[in-house]
């Protein structure tokens, strides 16, 4: 078991998400930065779909009530076990009564904690990912108890660490493709999408990111149509919304771009005040 001493700003349990329920309005949810989450699981020999903790902006403190192996990946929030720094992207043995804490941010916005065998919380609609109305909890709270599996640990599964280029977290470039309504944009609007360096507003979360800058826009709303994580919408006011993992399954704003999977992962590591620039790759069929 793991006891939550401090849940931090926004900490949830996530896996690769739930699929097959869009017809009843249930989003896929799941790990925001799948690259980092999958890396943590792979390093300790887990299945890539095993559930882990997604820790947004740090300040999470956990007490382990049994021995296990963990890996911390993604954002660097200066993790420590007791008073010793924890190296990212490395299998680490944690003993009974050890305390793992996440503190000062160095880079990134979301860290991932994988434990051997994954967190054994309840499965709802094929996933352990927290989502309001589907799971009993939306966020971790103080004194929550998180069940984990028991193992006899004789040696660590991997002694080496994996080095991740910090540019993954710091680059502003996001690869995108034309969306279904892209060709309705004027030449000027398309040029703006390519040239403007956009700023992430304070209105950003697991559902979507709103950008500060806007485009001149006279496009009408569209009939409600399917949207996905990574869909870039243009609102009537000219504001841009980038949908993320907890987004709704349909929307009525023009879908002007679609982010690549890598771009979604990178965007998940950004927060208020960070900048992005779309790198639009036209598809020639």
From TrEMBL:
<protein>
    <submittedName>
        <fullName>Biotin-dependent carboxyltransferase</fullName>
    </submittedName>
</protein>
<feature type="domain" description="Carboxyltransferase">
    <location>
        <begin position="23"/>
        <end position="285"/>
    </location>
</feature>
<keyword id="KW-0547">Nucleotide-binding</keyword>
<keyword id="KW-0378">Hydrolase</keyword>
<dbReference type="GO" id="GO:0016740">
    <property type="term" value="F:transferase activity"/>
</dbReference>
<dbReference type="InterPro" id="IPR052708">
    <property type="entry name" value="PxpC"/>
</dbReference>
<dbReference type="GO" id="GO:0016787">
    <property type="term" value="F:hydrolase activity"/>
</dbReference>
<dbReference type="InterPro" id="IPR003778">
    <property type="entry name" value="CT_A_B"/>
</dbReference>
<dbReference type="InterPro" id="IPR029000">
    <property type="entry name" value="Cyclophilin-like_dom_sf"/>
</dbReference>
<keyword id="KW-0067">ATP-binding</keyword>
<keyword id="KW-0808">Transferase</keyword>
<dbReference type="GO" id="GO:0005524">
    <property type="term" value="F:ATP binding"/>
</dbReference>
<dbReference type="Pfam" id="PF02626">
    <property type="entry name" value="CT_A_B"/>
</dbReference>
């Amino acid at each position: 078991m793991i006891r939550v001493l401090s849940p931090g700003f926004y900490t949830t349990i996530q896996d690769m998400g739930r699929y097959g329920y869009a017809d009843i309005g249930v989003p896929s949810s799941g790990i925001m930065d799948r690259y980092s989450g999958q890396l943590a699981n792979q390093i300790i020999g887990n299945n890539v779909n095993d559930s882990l903790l997604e820790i947004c902006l740090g300040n999470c403190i956990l007490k382990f009530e049994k021995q296990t192996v963990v890996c911390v990946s993604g954002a660097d929030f200066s993790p420590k076990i007791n008073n010793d720094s924890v190296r990212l992207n490395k299998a680490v043995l944690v003993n009974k009564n050890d305390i793992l804490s996440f503190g000062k941010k160095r880079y990134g916005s979301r860290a991932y904690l994988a434990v051997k065998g994954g967190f054994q919380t309840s499965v709802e609609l094929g996933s352990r990912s927290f989502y309001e109305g589907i799971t009993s909890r939306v966020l971790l709270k103080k004194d929550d108890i998180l069940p984990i599996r028991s193992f006899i640990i004789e040696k660590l599964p991997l002694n080496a660490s994996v080095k991740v280029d910090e540019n993954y977290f710091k680059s502003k470039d996001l690869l995108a493709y034309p969306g279904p309504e892209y060709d309705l944009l004027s030449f000027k609007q398309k040029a703006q999408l390519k040239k403007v360096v956009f700023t992430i507003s304070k209105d950003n979360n697991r559902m979507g990111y709103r950008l500060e800058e806007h485009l001149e826009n006279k496009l009408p709303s569209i009939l409600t149509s399917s949207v996905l994580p990574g869909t870039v919408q243009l609102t009537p006011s000219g504001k841009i919304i980038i949908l993320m993992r907890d987004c709704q399954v349909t929307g009525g704003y023009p879908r002007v771009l679609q982010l690549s999977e890598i771009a979604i992962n990178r965007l998940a590591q950004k927060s208020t005040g960070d900048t992005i620039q779309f790198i639009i790759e036209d598809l020639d069929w």
